[in-house]
Each structure stands twice: as structure tokens, then as C-alpha cells.
């Protein structure tokens, strides 16, 4: 069994959380053959996100969390969902380079907004976090 720690939000992570998880795993008698962190794969994840945009399967959205909730409840597409691919690519690059403020844009995956599973309505794949990773 491998273990992967999601360290994508530096404001919410503490060493004590990892230590506690490791204690529980040891208590259960398990020993991971490999330990990784999501941040180990940031470039790969970024490249995959760019590919999703290029294929028309993701877009940069500017809705607030409240607007996203409202649109999801009504099973409505975001007004930004059909923006041109090149525009989303440019904006996603700007998100990465810190040119867009935290909370002003997300990258969302295009999914079925009419599905019975509301948890799958255009999931947010990337947010802007203005914190440094250690």
C-alpha cells in the first residue's frame, strides 16, 4: 500500500496531521511501500489541466462560490463555460503566474450539469492560493 498526502492547501496543513496519520497507519500494522505528496506532481497535474482545456473539457470560471452553488442548484451552466479555449489557456496561465487574485477564478472541468449526481457538476480542479508551498 502506498500513502499520498494532499498538501495542496498550505494554510490548512500542519506536520502534526501527517504525524497523526502515520501513527494510525503504524497502529493498524500497515507500512506504506511509498509515501508521496500531491505537490510532488504539481507540474504533471498542471500539464494534464492544460490538456483538458485544449480538448475543450475544462474552462476558467469567474463565478463566486455563491454563484456556483446557485447555478448548480438550478442545473445551469456557468456563463463562462463556453469561453474560447485559447482564452481559458491564457487565463489559466495567468492564474498560475499570480496575475489573478485569489478567489477571482477557478478551473472547472466540464461535466454533465443535468446529471442526478450534483457532486459532479463541473468540478473545480484548480483554485488560486496566494500561499507559498514549503
UniProtKB/TrEMBL annotation:
The keyword Membrane does not apply. The keyword Coiled coil does not apply. Keywords: Aminoacyl-tRNA synthetase, ATP-binding, Ligase, Nucleotide-binding, Protein biosynthesis. One of its GO terms (biological process) is translation. Pfam families: tRNA-synt_1c. InterPro entries: Gln/Glu-tRNA_Ligase, Glu/Gln-tRNA-synth_Ib_cat-dom, Rossmann-like_a/b/a_fold. It comes from the Eukaryota. Residues 4-131 form the Glutamyl/glutaminyl-tRNA synthetase class Ib catalytic domain. GO terms for molecular function: aminoacyl-tRNA ligase activity; ATP binding. Belongs to the class-I aminoacyl-tRNA synthetase family. This is Glutamine--tRNA ligase, cytoplasmic. It comes from Vitis vinifera (Grape).
Amino acid at each position: 500500500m502506498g500513502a499520498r498526502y494532499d498538501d495542496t492547501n498550505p494554510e490548512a496543513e500542519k506536520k502534526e496531521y501527517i504525524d497523526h496519520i502515520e501513527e494510525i497507519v503504524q497502529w493498524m500494522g500497515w507500512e506504506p511501500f511509498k509515501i508521496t505528496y500531491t505537490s510532488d506532481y504539481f507540474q504533471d497535474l498542471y500539464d494534464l489541466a492544460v490538456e483538458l482545456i485544449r480538448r475543450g473539457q475544462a474552462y476558467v470560471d469567474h463565478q463566486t462560490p455563491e454563484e456556483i452553488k446557485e447555478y448548480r442548484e438550478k442545473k445551469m451552466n456557468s456563463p463562462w463555460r463556453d469561453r474560447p479555449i485559447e482564452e481559458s489557456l491564457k487565463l489559466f496561465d495567468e492564474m498560475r503566474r499570480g496575475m489573478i487574485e485569489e478567489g477571482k477564478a477557478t478551473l472547472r472541468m466540464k461535466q454533465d450539469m443535468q446529471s442526478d449526481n450534483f457532486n459532479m457538476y463541473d468540478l473545480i480542479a484548480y483554485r488560486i492560493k496566494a500561499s507559498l508551498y514549503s
